[in-house]
Design brief:
The protein is built from 19 helices and eight strands. The chain is mainly alpha-helical and about 450 residues long. The strands form four sheets. It has a two-stranded antiparallel ribbon. A two-stranded parallel ribbon has the order 3-4. A two-stranded antiparallel ribbon has the order 5-8.
């Protein structure tokens, strides 16, 4: 039962946060007369030594005694103080025990959260988008070649997914950054500790205003995991695209050897292992969120031991997200691009909408032009040649409003450069998107309407 009950094997990762919270709590207890100035000094010095032991892998865990990070640090603190005060048996244990006055372990766990940072991933995307802006490739819908776009435009499409994740993460952190310390087991603190002072010292933005709510709450874990689930959904999508683009059928990109492997049986193959694992980790992240959501469902109010499962869930979430960001950043920073293969994949049929736009400029309603361009596609397929190979007479046989200049529609670079509206795939539009992303990286805020436009 002891092994089943303990959580130290997991929450020892939070030793620094627990010590910071303990020091703040000790100072609050000194302010209301629970601790003397000398006792506070012994606690602060002792906890610093305990932290050094954790940092240098010297902390000796005692199974059966150290149930969690809080009891482990308090037990060791007592021993350290005893060593510093020879001839005063158990004085350290008594002083360390005062640290627990009016404090419940239930409200300490809520201070332990690890922040994530997507800056390096976004920087790689922006850098590649800027330097490889001249590369044109097929854009896809329904996995069918649709219209030509810039490679940079595709990169930034995911860049803005991750930028939105970045903004949401900031909001998650802000929304959960409220101090539960001083809530006790459920009914509050009887010694009148200054919760505001504790919270400000630890960097919180405000207080949890109801002690029962504070010890009941694990929404901060669920919010973080929910964020992670959405983020990993975006990761899985870019991984899937890159799996397709790195296939022999596409050959648009080539993964570095560090992020791919050869087949044990077929040496000609180069498998996108890193990308496939990223897709798999997305499913694992969804499972972590689903699992802990189920754990919290229908629990009675205040603390219940079930909540201990949140420690394992958030540590797994943190590890999964950290490693996934690093792997994706590595993949994107090291892959090579084949502009030649991308150019070869740009078929004339992808410019069917250019024909429709051509007729719109001649005053033909778009609904009608859509059907006309469809008939041109059908004619080219019937004759077994590309649309750009049809004669002017054949174009005019479909619709007499096609002029001698219709062949000008079949220029992929020109088609891309027509998309100059904000958010489009023309160079001017892509450069503006890069500028917007740079503002986000520099300031943490994304311009609403464009750089210099608010």
């Amino acid at each position: 039962m002891e092994a089943y009950n303990e959580s130290l094997s997991l929450d020892k990762a939070f030793y620094a946060q627990d010590i910071a919270g303990s020091i703040a709590w000790a100072r609050a207890n000194k302010a209301v007369g629970i601790l003397t100035a000398n006792e506070l000094q012994e606690i602060e010095g002792g906890l610093q030594k305990v932290q050094n032991e954790w940092e240098n892998n010297l902390f000796n865990i005692k199974p059966g005694i150290d149930e969690d990070i809080h009891t482990a640090n308090e037990r060791r603190l007592g021993e350290v103080i005893d060593q510093a005060m020879p001839g005063t048996a158990n004085a350290g244990k008594a002083i360390a025990g005062k640290l627990h006055t009016g404090r419940s372990r239930n409200d300490q766990i809520a201070t332990d959260l690890v922040k994530k940072d997507l800056t390096s991933l976004l920087q790689v995307i922006v850098s590649r988008a800027e330097t490889e802006i001249n590369i044109t490739m097929p854009g896809y819908t329904h996995l069918q070649r649709a219209q030509p776009v810039r490679w940079s435009h595709w990169l930034l499409s995911y860049g803005f997914f991750f930028a939105a994740d970045f903004k949401r993460l900031k909001n998650v952190i802000k929304d959960l950054n409220y101090c539960p310390l001083g809530s006790g087991a459920l009914s509050g603190n009887v010694f009148g500790v200054d919760r505001k002072a504790i919270g400000e010292e630890l960097g919180f933005e405000g207080l949890c205003w109801n002690s029962m709510n504070a010890v009941s709450d694990r929404d901060f874990l669920l919010a973080t995991m929910s964020w992670g689930s959405m983020f990993m959904g975006h990761v899985s999508r870019i991984a899937m695209d890159l799996c397709i683009y790195s296939s022999q059928e596409s050959g648009f990109v080539k993964l570095a050897d560090a992020y791919s492997t050869g087949s044990s049986l077929m040496p000609q193959k180069k498998n996108p292992d890193a990308l496939e694992l990223l897709r798999g980790k997305s499913g694992q992240m969804h499972g972590l969120l689903s699992g802990f959501t189920s754990t919290m469902n229908s629990l009675p109010s205040c603390y219940n031991k079930d909540m201990q499962e949140g420690t394992s869930a958030i540590l797994s979430t943190t590890t999964l997200l950290t490693t996934s960001i690093k792997i994706l950043t590595g993949v994107l920073s090291t892959l090579s691009v084949s502009p030649t293969n991308m150019l070869k994949a740009l078929e004339p049929s992808m410019l069917a909408t250019e024909l429709a736009d051509y007729l719109v400029k001649k005053g033909v309603p778009f609904r009608e032009t859509h059907h006309i361009s469809g008939r041109v596609v059908a004619l080219a397929e019937e004759k077994g040649k590309g649309m750009d190979e049809l004669s002017i007479a054949e174009f005019q046989g479909v619709d007499g409003r096609f002029g001698d200049d219709v062949k000008g529609c079949f220029d992929h670079e020109a088609a891309v450069e027509k998309r100059t509206a904000k958010g489009g795939t023309a160079k001017r539009s892509v450069r503006e998107q890069i500028a917007v992303m740079k503002v986000l990286l520099e300031t943490g805020e994304m311009p609403a309407w464009g750089v210099g436009e608010g």
